Amino acid sequence: MAEEHRLFLSINFIRSRQTLYALQRKPEPQLQPLGIYSSKIQTMKRNAGNPFRPRYLASWIGLGFLWALSLIPMRILYPVGTVIGDLLRTLVSSRRRIAERNLELCMPHKSKVEIQQLVKENFRNIARMALYTGTIWWAPKDKLLSLVTVKNQHLLTEILETGQGAILIAPHMVGLELGGIFLSLRFDGISIYQYSHNPVFDRAMLKARQRFGSKLFERKSNLKGLIRAIQQGKPCYYLPDQDPGPRRALFAPFFGISTATWPVLGKLSKLGRAKALTCATYLKPDGKGFEIVFGEPLKDFPSGNDETDTTAMNAVIENCITQAPDQYLWVHKRFKTRPAGEPGFYK
User: Fold this and answer.
1) 47 vs 196: CA distance, rounded Å
2) Which helix (H) or strand (E) holds 134?
3) 8 Å CB contact between 290 and 281
4) Where in 248-310 does DSSP place strands (E)?
5) What domains appear along the chain, each with residue ranges and CATH number?
6) How confident is the model over 136-170, as pLDDT tens digits?
7) How far is residue 264's CA from residue 278's CA, in Å, rounded to a whole number?
8) Secondary structure percentages of the chain, helix, strand, coil, to 5
9) Integer Cα distance of 316 and 329 in angstroms
10) Torsion angle of the four alpha carbons 96, 101, 106, 107, in this order, in degrees rounded to the nearest 10
């Protein structure tokens, strides 16, 4: 579903879609029966296949390699990720060109040399995060807590203490996998899950994400159960910054570019009677861990107007990205869908 994550697959690290928790569903005027995938809620039948078939031997080896990496300190993995990232940037030239194009569009004030440097560090951060996946999936609670610092947590706590739910807008920073899992250590949260077609990694990801109590709603299920949980005062980890395609898109400014965007956040906030605020996860330098930063709740949100709400959402996502532009998933074709009659940005 997302080519960019083949970068992770190419080094046998991770098989996932845009790393997780993405609410990619067209909002319907009427909510259909709910399907949920969570060991703590209700098991949903899927056709991911039997993970123990011989055809998945390579996947099991890759998973074992990930587990082995979890035993290695992040400060050692950090320079290894630098080398792998530089190699990937050379080998996966199509993704390098996409990243360069995205940065040229979003940051026209940057020189060509500055763009190239951002792309170089971006590939390094993608590789580093791939190497850290084992730590995120298998590290015990105490170790994860020691690796993460949190800024502005009171912004979320103050909302939840009133009994109101919260929607955490999580941009596609490379560290977002850690953000979703870590939040379940401190809050009784929920998130969206799309199963992987590889049953080995599907099984591993589910166990990793649920091991601290998080409840996952399968992406293709309806929103009714999700909304009910938000109404009950739970925080929802939500990744909205993806191209939904021409049929479902609402075009709103993103770095000054008319961008196909999911017009879901405002509706979700209204139905869930919830506040919306950003929750961005950043990698610290030199393998020193992660930082999760909460932003101020969006003001006068939802407005009742999809275009206004989507524009407001894109603006706060922009702000998260500018804090660490080398950590956004620029290898994704964010501007693939264009308004009717407008030429594409990618060759």
Assistant:
1) 10
2) helix 112-138
3) yes
4) 250-254, 257-261, 274-283, 290-294
5) 18-55+140-327 (3.40.1130)
6) 999 999 999 999 999 999 999 999 999 999 999 99
7) 15
8) 45, 15, 40
9) 16
10) 80
